[in-house]
Amino acid sequence: MSEALLQRVEACYQLAEAFFQRPFLRPAVSLRLRGLKAGVAHLTENKLRFNAQLYRENQEHFLRQTVAHEVAHLVAHQMFGPRIAPHGEEWQLIMRGVYGLVPERCHSYEVQRRVQTRYIYRCACTEGGEFPFSSQRHRLVGQGRRYFCRRCKVTLSFTGEQRRE
Questions:
Q1: Which residue in the list 3, 17, 45, 70 is annotated as catalytic?
Q2: Residue 128 pLDDT
Q3: DSSP state of 49
């Protein structure tokens, strides 16, 4: 776990405590998030997950903006309850008033997509075209799951063709 990231989480909580004049329960923090998201706040579990790759590649902005963004979700949940909008007034108040940051909903980090293998399936009709399946869906077919063409209702079958995207 990155010491700088943990320090930033703690600093965000201290700012919130000074602003709201009350203590907040500290969350569990992990760098075990993958994919396109930079961070996720699990409100009911009081847990923060961050994307280690995006953190490494965008460290300064990530520490300033992304960590505060996710902590603000947990603070808003503890302050205002579970019925608030995820990026609503309460969350925006915390981003602006507590952290002095623009409340950005989404990050703009460069995300390198993995090369993925697509397995090509077809049906009996000519209008159905081809159906590129992910590795997971292809594996499910191997375990007996069936997928059907919406036009002709025939089970899709693997052509043997694979494509890298």
A1: 70
A2: 60
A3: E
The whole-number pLDDT of residue 23 equals: 98
> Quick one: 57 and 86 in the same domain?
yes
Average pLDDT over residues 84-98: 97
Please check whether residue 104 lies inside any domain of the structure: no
Decide if 165 is catalytic: no
Reported in sequence order, the residue ranges of 61-156 that DSSP labels E, i.e. its strands, are 117-122, 130-133
Residues 86 and 7 in one domain: yes
| DSSP 8-class letter at 148 | B
Q: Are 53 and 23 in contact (CB under 8 A)?
A: no
Indicate the pLDDT class of residue 108, thresholds 50, 70 and 90. Answer: confident
List the domain range (segments joined by +) for residue 41: 3-98
- 121, pLDDT greater than 80: yes
